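Priority: medium. Attachment 1 of 2:
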């Protein structure tokens, strides 16, 4: 069973963010499968890198949206995003060094962070986005 199964519960009602969140779940599901199957360190490292890269893209687009909509908690959101990326970089380094213990720690961190972030933190900017022309917002 996957830690990262997308459901309508995670939809926040902002199309670009919902689509990106669903893709993040997909990458994390792939990562969990790679770990569970005992795939090679390069395979797992590659998925962690993919996660980091896609997360940075998502965060950039989400922060541009918040800036455009004058979300007052943008700085706090940016800080939380930066902390997440730094932690992923540390997990990537540990994986490359062959740290087997990091696998469950990584999956647990990702699940807790993602669920908390989508269900609580991201929902805070939704009222600022409602009625805005999202398609016209620069994507980064």
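Attachment 2 of 2:
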């Amino acid at each position: 069973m996957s830690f990262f199964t997308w459901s309508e519960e995670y939809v926040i009602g902002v199309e670009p963010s919902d689509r990106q969140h669903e893709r993040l779940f997909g990458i994390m599901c792939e990562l969990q499968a790679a770990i569970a199957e005992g795939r090679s360190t390069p395979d797992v490292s590659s998925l962690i890198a993919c996660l980091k890269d896609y997360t940075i893209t998502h965060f950039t687009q989400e922060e541009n949206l918040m800036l455009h909509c004058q979300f007052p908690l943008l700085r706090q959101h940016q800080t939380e995003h930066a902390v997440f990326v730094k932690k992923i970089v540390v997990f990537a380094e540990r994986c490359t060094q062959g740290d087997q213990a990091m696998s469950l720690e990584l999956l647990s961190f990702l699940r807790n962070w993602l669920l908390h972030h989508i269900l609580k933190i991201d929902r805070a900017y939704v009222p600022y986005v409602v009625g805005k022309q999202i398609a016209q917002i620069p994507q980064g």
